[in-house]
Amino acid sequence: MTTDQLRPAETPRIYAVPGGNGVRLHVREWGRPDGPAILLVHGWSQGLTCWRHQVEGDLAAQCRVVALDIRGHGMSERPREADAYQDANLWAMDIAAVLDQLELQRPVLVGWSYGGSIIADYLRVFGQGAIAAVNLVGAAMILNDHFDHIGPGLLDNVEGACSPDLTTGITAVRHFLRACTVEAMDPDDWDSALCTNMVVRPDVRAALLARHIDCDDVLAKLTVPVLVSHGMRDTLILPSMAEHVVSACPSAVASWYDDVGHAPFLERPLRFDRELLDLVRRANVPH
């Protein structure tokens, strides 16, 4: 796997942000406080630790980089009620709360996998006036009973990952994580990913996937720049999903990653960061 030269780990600035219905969200910030703002939103069963290469690389040296653990994940609060994960308005309020409390001025929103649909939830409620651009990374913008554009890397492991049996869950999560990349993760990334995923309760995983999601209405109205970053060998969210997004969104352009799976930011961090910085400049993010 291609890796970059990571800087010595910076001590992040840490926030507790009350989101929708007061759910406490764990948020961290790195980089230049006066730099152009980027908000990173991770995916299903993950956590903000997945962005290690971004927060310890050149991206944070030039930008104000913020990441959150979405509700039910990482160090954020984990409501017991399934409704807390199935109401699109609550997800929208979570993102709005982070933008407001941290005073992020027209940031670029980056959504990986399920994080893409969370960004769409925000845009549907609050519009695009407060943001500069969007980067959809292996983004799941449709989730329905037919599993359109969803591949075996996810489908083959969902039942086990949502099982209350710990041994079953560990096995499924390990298979799921192996499917996320074409080449094996380096040991630090693998250990972090496995631990972060296992913090997420199986009922939370199930509640997220019980939602019916269709973001076409949001995509059709976007006028801010949208970069669609997708691995050509993604077996979780298939490349056909990205093709659909580009066809549905007038302002979207695709960046295809050959020989890369579901995590371009992890498998090709130098290229990913460079293209994200280009998007920041194109969108004229204030700083």
TrEMBL record:
Keyword list, A-Z: Hydrolase
Keyword Hydrolase attributed: yes
Domain called AB hydrolase-1: residue spans: 36-269
InterPro entries in UniProt: AB_hydrolase_1 (IPR000073), AB_hydrolase_fold (IPR029058), AB_hydrolase_sf (IPR050266), Epox_hydrolase-like (IPR000639)
Keyword Protein transport carried by entry: no
Matches recorded under Pfam families: Abhydrolase_1
A GO MF label: hydrolase activity
Highest taxon, organism lineage: Bacteria
PANTHER family: AB HYDROLASE SUPERFAMILY PROTEIN YCLE, MONOACYLGLYCEROL LIPASE
Protein name listed in UniProt: Alpha/beta hydrolase
